[in-house]
Each structure stands twice: as C-alpha cells, then as structure tokens.
Amino acid sequence: MKVVFLTLLFGLLCGAQETPAEIDPSKVTGEWRTIYVAADNKEKIVEGGPLRCYNRQIECKNDCEYLFISFYVKFDGRCQFFSEELKRQEGGIYIIESGGTNYVQIIHVTDNVLVFYFENDDGQKITKITEASARGTSFTQEELQKYQELNSERGIPNENIDNVIETGKAPEENSYPK
After folding, report:
1. CATH number where 95 lies
2. How far is CA 102 from CA 24, 110, 139, 171, in A?
3. Facing residues of 133 across strands?
4. 74 by DSSP, 3-state: which?
C-alpha cells in the first residue's frame, strides 16, 4: 500500500508542478540564504518549527543528479548544522528525511533566486511548503511577486509567507551578511 501511495505522490508532484525543463547547475551551486518560507500548514515553518531551515550552501553535481545541501535547523532553541547528499529520483524529485519524509523539487532558479517545493509526509498529514533562497539578503519586488505566484499555483496561501530574515536568526558565526 505504501508503494502505491508513493507512486501516486510522485505522479502528482511530477504532473502538477511547473518545473524548469533544464536546470542550469551553474545557477544552483553556491552560497544561498533562506529569505522566505511558506506552507499550507504554517505551524510547521514558524521559528522553531520542524521544517524551518536556514540554507547556507548548495552544490549541484553531475547536472544536479546529486544535490549537496548545508543548512541549519533550530531544535529546542539551539541551531544544529546539517549537511545532506540528495540523489535525484524520477521526475526531478529529491527525498530527505527530516520531520517525516520530504519530497523536494527545484521549481525556480535564476542568478539570485532558488525556490524549492516540498511535500512533507509526517505520517499523519501532507504539508506543502516552498522555500525561497537568495544569494544576498533580500528579493526584488519582481522576485517576491514570482515567489507569490509559485505559492498560489501550489495552493499555499501567500498570507502564510514568513520572512526568515526578519523573524529568525541563525548562529552568529553564520548569520546573514549585513
């Protein structure tokens, strides 16, 4: 039964999502800082929530067959560093275990903006999440508008967007540049 569910979930992710035909690895690799996060279940992404991440570094290998992601997550008031290697599955999906099973897809990338779409299955509920990172500490108005459009396309209310820069802090030695 679980195999049938996962097959269905992969099909939904692949069929319903707008994904770039080709992801330019040179645009993915580098230092990234989480600027915005949004979810249809906002309690999962509030500061201290189980799915609120603070991206630091993303590296794309073999045409993004593998993603190496370094990020922080705050547990019990303390930031913990994680570094994960993700292997691309069928349909451009990556899987990471954190707060349940997360099916992750890059849905938008430019020179300054990288947006991931997640579907988190915690065993009780599926939560839709977008996470938008930048090479700097902010988005232009046009970049924010594009992020809002991506949320709307996925049924994530834009009122659930949280500005991570304004509401969350990473460890001082890894804080966002001023």
Report:
1. 2.40.128.20
2. 23, 23, 26, 25
3. 34, 114
4. strand
Cα–Cα dist 132/143, whole Å: 10
Encoding tokens for residue 143?
A: 């970049």
Helix or strand (DSSP H, E) at 151: helix 141-153
What are the structure tokens assigned to 172, written together? 């001082």
Domain of residue 87: give its range: 2-174
Rounded-to-integer distance, Cα 58 and Cα 60, Å: 7
pTM for this one? 0.81
- Residue ranges in the chain whose pLDDT is less than 70: 1-22, 167-178
Distance CA 92, CA 166 (A): 31
Q: Which two tokens stand for residue 78?
A: 């303390």
Number of domains in the chain: 1
